[in-house]
Fold this protein.
Amino acid sequence: MSTDEYRFFRAPVTAIQDLTPSFRRFTFGGDDLAEYGDPGFDQRVKVVFPTAHVGLDSMPRGADWYSRWRELPEHARAPFRTYTTRAVRNDKREVEIDMVSHDVLGPASAWIEGACVGDEVLIYAPTTHATGVSMGVDFVPPRHTESFLLAGDETSAPAIAVILEQLPPDARGVVVLEVPHARDAAYLPRHDGFEYRVAARTGHGRHAHLIAAVRQAAAELVPAGRGAEVEELDDLVWEVPRTAKGGAALKSAPLYAWLAGESAGIKTLRRELVTGHGVDRRAVAFMGYWREGRAEN
Ligand SMILES: Cc1cc2nc3c(=O)[nH]c(=O)nc-3n(C[C@H](O)[C@H](O)[C@H](O)COP(=O)(O)OP(=O)(O)OC[C@H]3O[C@@H](n4cnc5c(N)ncnc54)[C@H](O)[C@@H]3O)c2cc1C
């Protein structure tokens, strides 16, 4: 029996549920999922989608799967995209992933639109044998965090949902979320310590609500004269402050911000916090989950 800390899981769809206009929940089942690891928070995984031309069996396995996948001719590569584990129930051999189908079709959104119960994907995820800090978890707040700011677009909502469910009841903060439809606001679970500032995208363009609401939250949450470490920003669209061992970069902070979604918008939010409000960049995790006009791979 394999004791690998990460591996591919064969995951047949056992249920599909439309939660709101944008969020579709896929439940995957099967004995293989008894070993699917659950480090929690925003654990990211890779989902391999079959296409009309390439099946799942063509996906290289083993530790060097990625380099072998890259060596394949493009027409022979099964596409994979990054998603967030929403729930794991090892006892029932079940895993849930909530996926948004967007208007611009890529292999993931095409599959999301057309998938039926019984269809299969592969999920590359940690196993129950994994030990230590998961480097696929990017929510790494200081042990003593006075308040949290969780902000992003619809692709970040599954991660924010798990974070809200797993933070202790005495955690405090603000959630800022921009979604395609007003009814998508119902997606997030409630945490009594958080204020929710969720709005549908309007004619003012992508990120308009996000930027305005993050600016306002920063003005409220960032204590004057604290955490002032202003740095020039470079071209990064992914930075998760950690120690060498993978833990939080700071022991305590007045505010920890977790920002995820479309890259250009996320960069703007981070600039707002770090340059505009002097938030210590070691207390800001920002992740470009996708990039306008660019496929993931
Ligand atoms: C760590 C991480 C966790 C993620 N978790 C989730 C999750 O739990 N649920 C979820 O739904 N998504 C999640 N995403 C986002 C998802 O991986 C991307 O949206 C992905 O690009 C979709 O793949 P695709 O094949 O449909 O489109 P691609 O082939 O990658 O792109 C095709 C075109 O679609 C555009 N595009 C991609 N995504 C979107 C979008 N959301 N809205 C509008 N246009 C888009 C691209 O700019 C490109 O022009 C996550 C991403 C990361 C990095």
Notes: The chain has a mean pLDDT of 93. The chain has two domains: 6-126, 144-290.
